[in-house]
Target: Fatty acid-CoA ligase
Amino acid sequence: MTQSFVTAFAARAAAAPSVPALIWENQAIGYGELYAMACRARAQVTAAALDTEGPVGLRVRKSPEAVALVLGCLMAGRSFLLPSHELPDIPLKELYHQAGCRQIFGTVDGPMIDAVVHPAAGWTGAAPQQEQPAPVDPDAIGFMLTTSGSTGVPKIVPISYGAVTRFAAWAAETFGITNGTRVLNYAPLNFDLCLLDVWSTLAYGGTVVMVDPDRGTSETYLRELVTGHGVQVVQGVPLLFQLLVEAAGGEPLDGPEHLVFAGESFPARLLDDLAPVFPEARWYNNYGCTETNNSFLHEVDRDGPVTAPLPIGRPLPGVNWLLVDGDGRALTGPGQGELLVNTPFQTTGYLNSPNEEKFGPHPDGDPGLLYYRSGDIATRHEDGSLSVLGRRDFLVKVRGFQVSTQSVEGILLDHPAVAEAAVVALPDPVAGHRLHAQLRLTEPGSVGVLTLRQYCAQRTVRAAVPAVFELVTTALPRTSTGKVDRTRIKQSLLEQ
Model:
C-alpha cells in the first residue's frame, strides 16, 4: 500500500480547508467543502453499488459535483469508467458492458443513470474530519478513460493509482504547482489532460479554475477567467490559445507563467500571435496520449527563432523510447520511424480488447518493458531531440506519392487569411486518394481558391495540393476535446 494522490488531496483539505480548490461560475469552493462533497459522494456510491468489487460507470458533465463524484469513487477504492457524456447511448452501453460496470452513476438524472449522486450538501464550514481514503495497491486501477474512438467504438484505457500519483509528482514539480497555484481546466473531465489540470492540481494544493464547456468558445469569458482569477498555468489544444489571442487583441494578458501546448501541432502563425499576448510566460510543447500520458516535453527558447512544427523535445524522467523502421527494426541513430514509448504513467493495455497491435516488448528483445506503438512518425535529429512529422493514420498515397494530410493542413493554417483548416483523403479510383480541404477564412471573401491553390503549390509537391478547396463560413466541427473532427467531416463528404 502507498500514499496516493487521493490521500494527498485529503491531507490538503485537513490542513487548509478554506483554501479554494475549485473556481466555478466565479464561485470558490474550498478544499474542506470539496472534501465533504467527496465524502458524501463516497457514501452514496458505496450504499448504492450493487457490486462491491467491480467498477462503476460515470456519466457526468463537468461541474464541482462531478469532480466530487470522481473523488468519492477514488476515496472508496472503486475503479470507474469515465467516458465522454456526449457519446450516443449505443456506444456508451457497449463501453459500460465491456468494462463490467453493473451500475451507472451521475450527478443529474438522465438516460442510463441508475443512481443520482447529490454530493453538494453536508459541509459545516469546519475542518473536515479525517475520513481517510481506502488503502489501495498502487497497481490497482482507478481511472478508466477512453480513446477518441475516431475509428469506431472507443477503447478503454485503465490507469492505476500509482501511475496517476507518479504523474502528479512530475507535473507539480515541472510547472510549479503548489499551495494556491491557479491552473486553468479547459478540457472535459474524461480527457487525459485533466490528470494535470485537475487531479495533479488538487493533490498539490492548487486551485482549479474550471471552464464551463457551454462557454468554452467565448473569447471574453476565457479572458475574464484567466485574468480575473490570476491563472498561472494554462494547458490546452490550439483552439484555446487561438481564442485567448483573439480575446487579447494584441495586448498582454497578465498572470500566466506556463503555457502548455497539447493535443495537436501548433500552427506557426498562432505561435507568432502568442508572443505579444504572453510575453513573460514559459512555453512548452507537451507530447503524450491517453495510453501513456505525457512522454516528452520541449520548452521553447523564447530568445531564439520559434518555428513550427515545434519539436517534442526530450523524454520525461523514467521514459523509454525508440524509433522503428518499416521492417520493425530499431533505429540506433538519427533517422525517421514510428515512435514507441514506455512511461511510468502508462496503462498496461486496453481493457477487454486486443492489445498485440499496439503494445509489445522492445523489437530487439530487451526484456521487461512494455512499449506502446504511438502511430506517430518521428524524426530523431543529430542532437537527440525528436520532431513528429504526422500520424501514420494520416499518411496516404496520392498518385504514388506518400502525403501527410496533417502537413498540408499546417501549410494552409500558415496562410494569414485561413482561420481553420481540415484536410481529409477521399478514395479515388485513379489517384488512389484525392485530398479535400475544408477551410474557414478569417474574413469571408478575403482570399480565393486559386490563390490558396497557388500558395500550396509553392510549398509542397503537386500530389499534396488538395483537389478541392471548400470554403465554409461556419466553424469546423470539433470533438469534445476541442480538436477538429476530421472523421465527421470525411463522413459528411462521403455521404454527399
In short: The longest strand covers residues 418-428. The domain at 399-494 is CATH 3.30.300.30 (GMP Synthetase; Chain A, domain 3). The mean pLDDT is 90.
